[in-house]
Amino acid sequence: MVLQLRLLGTGTPTPLLERAGACYLIECGDEVLLFDCGPGAVRRLLQAGVAPTQVTHLFLTHLHYDHCNDYSYLVLSRWDQGAGRIPDLAVCGPLGVGRMTSLLFDEDGVWGPDLEGRTRHGGSQAIYQRRGGVLPRQRPQPRVTEVQGGASVPGSDWQVTVAETRHCQPHLHSVAYRLDESDGSVVFSGDTAPTPRLTELARGADVLLHMCHFLNGEEGDSRMSDCCSGHLDAAQTAKDAGVCTLVLVHLTEQLLAPGLRERMCAEAAEVFDGTIIVGEDLLGVPLTTGPVVPAR
Ligand SMILES: [Zn+2]
User: Of 218, 271, 275, 294, which residue is least crowded by CB atoms under 10 Å?
Assistant: First the structure.
């Protein structure tokens, strides 16, 4: 099966037109997996040519809004357009994602009035039936699994493994994911400071998507470096884990100023001698790097 990886959102909590919140797309045959679903993720999904109804699985690394703000939009738009013809979304996330889902979609939840109207009002029922739906209309019920470090989630032709990261504990649970499929392996760091748990998870992977929130050496506040990673942290983890390709994501605009981007890559390359890619929204990332093709 051909596994395809595309970056949908490579930004941070800072709103930027060119960088959506964290979101990464894996297409694996008929299954479409999203890793995180930050602000703007659903729009980027459409730009990538994928409809929300095609998404089968969502993996959330943690519940910071820049990683999950489009969760309800994905669930609602997928449910609305799917008109009862597709299974509910399978969702994996850290402790807390079950409560968030209940607070959003239960009868007395945030979207209670919307869902009441769309399932009970005649006009909404008419649209639903035009889309192929059959009454009575059911509410969305994402199939949520809360995961912790050491868990593994089996798919049809793939497996996802979980490791706890080092981010905002004890206030917020956070995990990283590794996807293994016969075509290759991809690791999503989520947000984290360096931790041997992530290094172990990423051991021998083809691609490591790693947070890069600052330049090491320029960030003097240990409160930041205790919960997030810089370019050299990402490079060191990539080296220690022996991955082939490191993709820097979760990038601030300050890091990408002319000259700094080049410095970031050059310094990271002194630590990690594999392929280094600076993430961009909608960039397709090859699982293996091919030979250099001469210019024509
Ligand atoms: Zn975070």
Answer: 294
Q: Provide the pLDDT for residue 289.
A: 72
Q: Does pLDDT of 212 surpass 80?
A: yes
- The closest alpha carbon to 237, from 278, 185, 274, belongs to 274
Instruction: Quickly tell me which residue has 């930050």 as its tokens.
Output: 38
Task: Give the number of other CB atoms < 10 A from CB of residue 46.
Answer: 12
Determine the distance separating the centroid of ligand 1 and the alpha carbon of 91, expressed in angstroms. Answer: 18
264, amino acid identity: M
**161 bridge partner residues:** 152, 178
CA 275 to chain centre: 21
- Ligand 1 center from residue 203 Cα (angstroms): 23
Contact 202, 187 (CB under 8 A): yes
DSSP state of 196: H
CA nearest neighbour of 35 among 47, 21, 46: 21
53-57-59-63 Cα dihedral, nearest 10 degrees: 40
Pairing of strands 23-28, 31-35: antiparallel
pLDDT per position as a tens digit, 106-123: 999 999 999 999 999 999
CA–CA separation, 240 and 200 (whole Å): 9
Q: What are the structural domains of the chain? A: 3-282 (3.60.15.10)
Tokens of 4: 């395809």
Contact 149, 164 (CB under 8 A): yes
Distances (CA, A) of 195 to 51, 126, 172, 188, 192: 36, 53, 17, 14, 8
pLDDT at 87 over 80: yes
Q: Is 175 exposed, middle or buried (0-12, 13-18, 19+ CB in 10 A)?
A: buried
Residue 198 and residue 123: Cα distance in Å, rounded? 50
Distance 22 CA to ligand 1 centre (A): 10
Distance 195 CA to ligand 1 centre (A): 15
